[in-house]
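Complex 306.
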Amino acid sequence: MKRKPSLPDSGYRGRFAPSPTGPLHFGSLVAAVGSYLDAKRNHGTWLVRMEDLDAPRCIPGAADDILRTLDAFGLHSDEPVLYQSQRTAAYDAALQQLRTSGAAYPCSCTRKEIADSALNGIEGPVYPGTCRHGIPAGRTARAWRVRTNNDAIGFNDGLQGFQSQHLERQIGDFVVKRADGLFAYQLAVVVDDAFQGITHIVRGADLLASTARQIHLQHLLGLPTPQYMHLPVAVNAAGEKLSKQTLAAPVDVSHPIATLMQVLDFLQQRPPDKTAARSVAMLLDWAITHWDAEKLRGRRTLPACA
Ligand code: GLU
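Predicted structure with glutamic acid bound:
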């Protein structure tokens, strides 16, 4: 059942965009709950978008499993779920636009060639620009990259403060269509956030460094830039991000109230006494009314369970 907004629509449109590469774990539930509470506190619309673009990494059944888990926590998308696997034509059109304006170019370099000749930036090797002015003779195109420059791209993050990057120096021309023919996350997310009219993006701080690339693409494609708010990432006792790679356990749907309490505790929302938490719906209502993101200001990571 959908939650009925108590006030007229405010124009706020938020989203949760999981990748169905496995079941939802604590860290991704934090992003789901945080984005939901911020949307509902602002009388907004909250959407779920399934980022099932990277077919080789998606696990059959994981998308449905994630949606069932969200349901158990009372988190229902206000509009039909959008599946990125069905959006190839839109990504193609965006790439075409980037090609036509000269912003995107084909690249023949392999990962190894780049690693051998590149300097390290904030997210690995910075593309050295080998194919920027054309593919070397005798080579064939593998991927598509987008040109970057060294103008500062800055934005005011709702929790992490002012952020700025010089893409050419710190990231390099980045891939928008991969050598295996799949569209890259950075392009798909920008196209879909605009398509869905997203005004506010609330997600984990592990994506903070991606934001400048997304703003660059928004500028190149003539799309609006939403507001960004990056929540602290849940880390384990060793300080590692909870993820499939660190073997984070799936969230416990058999005790949704207790799990939701842990999420609210993680989000520094000081969960209420038992009277406000007799059901998931009551707890969510309490959490919407009391949502105060300020309590997370400046936090990039927090331990998963205090
Ligand atoms: N699908 C991405 C992930 O699960 C999140 C994308 C986003 O929120 O921008 O990490």
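The chain is about 30% helix and 20% strand.
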